[in-house]
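Predict structure. Chain length: 384.
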Amino acid sequence: MKKRFIGKLEVSPIGMGCMGFSHGYGKIPEKQYSIEAIRKAYAFGCTFFDTAEVYGNELYWEGHNEEILGEAVESFRKNIVIATKLHIHDEEVTPNMDLYHLIKSHLEKSLKRLRTDYVDLYYLHRVNEFVPVEDVAYVMGKLIDEGLIKGWGLSQVDVDTLDKAHRVTPVTAVQNLYNILERDCDDEIFPYCIEKNIGVVPFSPIASGFLSGKITAKTEFEKVDDVRKFVPQLTKENIEGNQPIVNILQNYAKKKKATPAQISLAWMLKKYPNVVPIPGSKNQERIIENLSAWDIELTDEEFYELQSALDKCEIYGHRGIVETQQKIFSLFLISLFGLSSPASASPPRPRKPGCGWAAKSGSTHALPHRSAPPGAYDTAAAQR
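Prediction complete.
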């Protein structure tokens, strides 16, 4: 297994998404089973673990997933890279908001739950449209200077947002949706990130399990807290429409004595040097299967043949990579399925130029903790 780098962070070529131990795939495993799964992944060679403060909110409490990960890795914490994420909720955005202390308070709670004194990679889970990403980038730079985080990242953003943030504090990683069915990142995100030495950490790299070949039009997802019911590619019609892609993966899997899921991950690893996928599963055997994909190497000829075959297939269903706190996936579900709107989806309050986190009294930055360097970013842009 050859290690990869996310910025300056050395990690296993495939990481482990831990969300399923608290949320997203129906029935939650027993806590001890989850802890054992994480420890088995580490014993197998995985050194990159991904969580978030909100994983667990639906069935448990904020930080549930972080607590499980923190307990599981405490004895070998220094040997791994931990990534977690914060949400800046609408109710936290006020005219007198102190963004530095707000973000730091989120981080301090995560540190306690993770049983560590630093986080390797700290993401803004979704951009809040009423908090300029440049301001968040500036705070992240302060936290890096203080040694509380080693790097930072963004999730579900386009290249324009990424560039605005990167100009203030260099971004370590982007966690966007990317897999064989969702390839928006090919257009601009990957070229930009390769040029800037930014890691790309795809979530849902196996398309919520569809690329494993185990999901069919007859599959019934769990009734409680199973996000797969709402994934665009997993409607009955789209499952049937995308079946030719699974057939291609199954054919290559037979040739390589692998599984379709492993081929989809190997395809990704072959395609880009800066990609580190984080497949998520709550099943111990499936976790090891996914990690084993790092031992499957596609030759140049195999890759180009596979890519050519995939390019001939029409893809049914699309989620995309641009989501914000105000335009989240749940809002897409509301429009698609007529679901009830969550409280967090209510329109946020408009803000007045020149107050709160933007310019105050003619200053170039709202944060009182240190002055932003001249030209760090466009104050007018921060007020839009």
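Summary: Strands lie at 4-6, 9-11, 16-17, 48-50, 81-86, 119-124, 149-155, 173-175, 199-200.
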